[in-house]
Design brief:
By secondary structure, the protein is of the alpha/beta class. The chain folds into two domains: 200 residues, 3-Layer(aba) Sandwich (Rossmann fold); 88 residues, UDP-galactose 4-epimerase, domain 1 (Alpha-Beta Complex). Helix content is 38%, strand content 19%. It is built from ten helices and 14 strands. Helix 2 runs parallel beside helix 4 and helix 4 runs parallel beside helix 5. It is globular. The two termini are 31 Å apart.
């Protein structure tokens, strides 16, 4: 298939470009390079475009005539969303509406959406399945839930078929060493810890040590970026085989690790010690997020290649 990968110059998007190309698809990356890197786009064509530019998107759809769209182009920092909600609603909601309009106007009706576990808010039970109540506690999560609601309306009104993937914590690097996480500044826990182990930063900060968890630090479910990308290909297969049914899936490993546990694992694997500081909580952080991945396993036949945290860390 010919696939538009929106945000394909970013961390997850660039891994998606590689894996979709290896699977035989024709990939076109669309990115504004606000946080992505063009040299991370290893395959296919590249088009410089902001998703808020509906007119330019329309031209790109007419030029390339894609069969499907995978949408990774969102701002995703919880803390920043609390201090600058306009940025998040403008890009994540208005930008997605702009993209969806270009799709509908050009009769492109298959859409894979990068949603987030942040739509659930503080969990009422663990593990979190697809039916868990959705009460996001930050603008980032709210923006993702708004798009999920928009997609339902677009299916009813325009026949758009979609799969929404609620990521838990994406982690890891391309095992071939061609791609990595290159956020500036880096905000994700695992690469920050690896930078400390490599001597590239002075310390690692733990934000909050008084959560209702075994050791007081936040617990998260980590899924390797390649497993995320492979899930998207499974989602595309699902849309091709199930013309009448859109769907939502949670993507994680079904296991949770606390911040302190992750830090200790990195220290053990790298045999490096580094300074760890404890600071106050950040606004908008739930204490525990662990996915139920049973629906994805059952319906998509999804099998993860990196089933434990040690394997993910080793790719870093």
């Amino acid at each position: 298939m010919k696939i538009f990968i929106i945000g394909g110059a970013g961390y997850i998007g660039s891994h998606m470009v590689k894996i979709a190309h290896q699977a035989g698809h024709d990939v076109i990356t669309v990115d504004n390079l606000s946080t992505g890197h063009q040299d991370a786009v290893l395959y296919g064509e590249f088009e410089l475009c902001d998703i808020l530019d509906t007119a330019k998107l329309d031209k790109l759809f007419k030029k390339h005539k894609p069969d499907a769209v995978m949408h990774f182009s969102a701002y995703s920092l919880v803390g920043e969303s609390m201090t600058d909600p306009y940025k998040y609603y403008n890009n994540n909601v208005s930008g997605t509406l702009s993209l969806l309009k270009a799709m509908i106007d050009n009769n492109c009706k298959k859409f894979i959406f990068s949603s987030s576990a942040a739509i659930f808010g503080n969990p009422e039970y663990i593990p979190i399945d697809e039916n868990h109540p959705k009460n996001p506690i930050n603008p980032y999560g709210k923006s993702k839930l708004m798009v999920e609601e928009i997609l339902k309306d677009f299916e009813s009104a325009y026949g758009l078929k979609y799969v929404s993937f609620r990521y838990f914590n994406a982690a890891g690097h391309d095992p071939d060493g061609e791609l990595s996480e290159r956020h500036d500044p880096e905000t994700h826990l695992l690469p920050i810890i690896m930078q400390a182990a490599n001597g590239q930063r002075d310390s690692v900060s733990i934000f909050g040590n008084d959560y209702d968890t075994n050791d007081g630090t936040c617990v998260r479910d980590y899924i390797h970026v390649n497993d995320l990308a492979n899930a998207h290909l499974k989602g595309l297969d699902y849309l091709n085989q199930n013309e009448s049914s859109s769907a939502e899936f949670n993507l994680g490993n079904g296991n949770g690790f606390s911040v302190k546990e992750v830090i200790q694992q990195v220290k053990d694997i790298t045999r490096k010690d580094f300074v760890v500081k404890e600071e106050g909580r950040r606004d908008g952080d739930p204490s525990t997020l662990i996915a139920s991945d049973s629906k994805a396993k059952e319906i998509l036949n999804l099998k993860v290649s990196y089933s434990n945290l040690e394997d993910i860390i080793r790719t870093l």
